[in-house]
Structure formats: structure tokens, C-alpha cells
Amino acid sequence: VSFAQTAKTDTLRLSLQEATDLALQNSLAVMNSKLDITNARHVNKQYRAAGLPQVNASIGYQRFLALPKSLVPAEFFGGPPGTFAELEFGTKNNIPVGLDVSQLIFSGQYFVALEATQKLVEQSEMEVKINEQQVKNTVRDLYHGIVVIDENKRNLQDNIKLLQQTLYETDALNKAGFVELLDVERLQLSILNLNSTQDILDKQKENLLLAMKMLIGLDFNQPIALKEQLSDFIDANTTLDFDDLSPTRRLELKRLNIAEQLNELDIRQIKQQYYPTAAAFLSYKNTFQSNKLNIFDGQSWLSQALVGVSVNIPIFDGFSKKYQLQQRYITRQKLKNTQSILNRSLYLEIEQAQLAYKNATQQLQMQQKTTDMAKKIYKTVETKYKAGIGSSFELIEAQKEIYQNQSLYLSALYNLLVAKTNLAKALGQ
Questions:
Q1: Are 283 and 306 in contact, with CB atoms under 8 Å apart?
Q2: Ramachandran class of 319: left when φ > 0, alpha when ψ lies in -120 to 50, beta otherwise
Q3: Where are the strands (E) in 38-92, listed by range?
Q4: In 3D, which of 377, 381, 404, 403 has the Cα closest to residue 393?
Q5: Residues 245, 349: contact at Cβ < 8 Å?
């Protein structure tokens, strides 16, 4: 992923799904967790290799600068009794060539280790899912935040156009002497305030877009635009199935279950150390022995071969395995306690998310009514103002009420989207 600040001219238009796909493709956290899967599979193959035949070859060379000598009674060779003669043993040149083959026959630890390494692969796969879910959630939150700002800006621009039209008409009335200059200045001030609010929204959107580019791995100078609007998410995000309100699909629970299984395998592995292990072996050696370094002399090569079985029987280890098991039993109890705590906290999270979702739904409905009422009041005040029986102050206040209620409505809608997302997260959807 490159973050070089190069000039980009073409605007990249993204839907939520496209932005999510880009983020998943370029997320370094997801990449690392996928590398962990590959690494765990290599660990599994490494342990599996211990159960395959182990073959080793060896070759060496020795030359005695002085052959070993021993003293023997000289009378063995016809010498006078009580005297000794020196005898040399061996040859000056020795070239041993060997081949050793071993095969594990039985080891309880081996089979448990294989099962444990497979669980490590599952654990790594679970971490990928968790990282991917975090990326998806972050992209969705950013995307929703941007579309809400866009909708707010559209409402703001509509209000500015409405006030500009009123200002145009009021300015004409002022020049004709029908209204005071103060009415014109009030409208001008109100438009300036709305323009200032629009600048604030532009800066907020710019910050969110920068965060989006960072997350999905784009150049910071690459212009991007969103394909979808707030209306595209209203129907899809304000309904949710409440049939299953259990946290059984939560990845945190599945990750903890794998940790418990690994702990049980660790206990089994230690218990297997109490049982014997057996292995078969084959050894073949051919050694060249001669004072002259003539390796093609067939008579100077001496061979030997050996085959057998070795059994390792553990008898006493000073209670080492006993205390290792005690530690694993403590870990097992801690994991069970953690699971109980996690279950209770997840059920609480679901209850709170469900309550927040219902409250957000009710708040949105209430805010829709107040927004409609504010628009109705503005129409009445505008009619009175144009008829000359209302003041510009009342008109501006009515316009402020419209924008404030529109902003509150968008805030309520965004809160509903967030509440729906949080409930989906709590349910593991």
C-alpha cells in the first residue's frame, strides 16, 4: 500500500461495499492476521514431520599422526619374562560413512501436539474474522458520518436559497420604502451564519474523508466521492430482526472457546508424558581403514548394520508434570470464569443496544413530527411577512427553527443508524 503524495485528478466514486472491499484488501492488520494463518499451518506441518521417518547421513575422515600404542608382556612374542613390548593398534587413515534411519512408533504427545497445532490454525482464522469485522465497522461508521454531513449540507443550501430569495424581495421592498433596512440586515446576517455553518460542515467532511482514505489505503491527494446518499441507508438500516437475541454468534465467544480447547489439549499433552514412547531405528556404517589412503581398495572397507527398537519409560521426574498440570487446571478455571463474565457482559450489551435502538426509533419519529411542524410554521410566517403583517425577525426565527429541527432530525437518523449497527454488533451479525 502506497501513501505517496502524488497528484491525482480522477475522482474515485465509492459505494459502501466498494470502500469496505478496498479497506479489507489494504488493511495491514488483516494482512498480518492472514500471515499468522500461514505461519500456524507451517507449525502444524513442522510437528507432523516429527512422525515421518528421520534419515541422516554422515561421513568423516581421521588420520592418526601417531597410532595408539599399548604395552603387552614380551614373553607372548618370545621375549624374556617380565619385560614388555609396544604394540600399535588401528590404521593411520579412517573414513567412516554412515546412514541412520529412525521412525517414531508411538507417542501420545505427538498426536496431541498435532491436534493443538490445528487448533492454532483455527485460532488464527478467528483473528482474521475479528480484524475484518473491525475494519468493516470502521468503514461503515465513516461512510454513514459523511452521508449525514452531505444531507445536512443539502438542507443548509436549501435554507440559504430560501433566505436569499426572501432577501432579494426584502431588499426590493426596502428600496421602495416599505420595510426598514434592519430587516435586510437581519436576513443578511442569517445567511452569513448559515454560510459559516456550511464551512464547518465542509471541514468535518474533509477530516472524515482523510480518515476514509487512510483506512482504505488511498493516496491522501486522491479525490473520492460517495456513490450513496443517506436515503439509501434509511430503509435498509432502520429495520432489524429481533428473533435471536443471544450472543452465540459473537466472535469473542468463539475465540474464548478455542482458548479453552487449547488448554484442554495442553492438559492432555502433559498427561501423555506419563506414558512410554517407542521408536525404531536402523543404522548402517561402512568404514575405510588403512595406513595408505587408497579408498578404492575394497578389502579396506569394513561394514556394520544395526536395527532395533527403543522404548523410553518415564519413572520419576520429581513431580514436575504434577505441578505443570496444577497450573493448567488453574488456567482452565480462569477461562471458565472469563467465559461467565463475557456471557453476562454480552447479554447486558444486547439489552442496552436493543433499548438504545428502540429509543432511537421513537426519537426519529418524534423529530420527524417537529420538523414537519417547523416547516408548517415557517410557511405561515412567510405568508404573513409577504402580506406585510409579519416581521423579518419572526421570519428569521422560523427559518432557524426549520434548520435546527432538520439538523436534529438528521442527528436522530444518524443515532438510529448507529444504534442499529451497535445492536447488530452485539448480536454478532
A1: yes
A2: left
A3: 54-59, 62-63, 69-73, 84-88
A4: 381
A5: no
Assigned C-alpha cell, 157: 443550501
C-alpha cell at 52: 515421518
Distance CA 308, CA 280 (A): 6
Long-range contacts of 257-262 (CB under 8 A, 24+ apart): 258/119, 258/122, 258/123, 258/126, 259/123, 259/335, 260/332, 260/335, 260/336, 260/339, 261/119, 262/116, 262/119, 262/120, 262/123
**CA separation for the pair 337, 333 (Å, rounded):** 6
**Is the confidence at residue 409, as pLDDT, over 50?**
yes
Has residue 239 got a pLDDT over 80? no
- Calculate Rg over the CA atoms of the chain: 42
Measure the CA angle with vertex 230, ends 224 and 235; round to 5°. Answer: 135
4's CB contacts (< 8 A; 6+ apart) are 219
Helix 181-216 / helix 16-26 crossing angle, nearest 10 deg: 40
Asked whether the beta carbons of 354 and 427 are under 8 A apart, the reply is no
* pLDDT tens-place string over residues 203-233: 999 999 999 999 999 999 999 999 999 888 8
CA distance 76 to 300: 28
pTM for the complete prediction? 0.80
Separation CA 400–CA 262 (nearest Å): 62
**Average pLDDT of the chain?**
89
- Residue 99 gets the label, from left (phi > 0), alpha (psi -120 to 50) or beta, of beta
Residue 1 to residues 22, 27, 134, 213, 422, Cα–Cα distance (Å): 11, 9, 19, 12, 30
C-alpha cell at 265: 489439549
| d(C-alpha 228, C-alpha 420), whole Å | 18
- Is there a contact between 398 and 378 (Cβ–Cβ < 8 Å)? yes
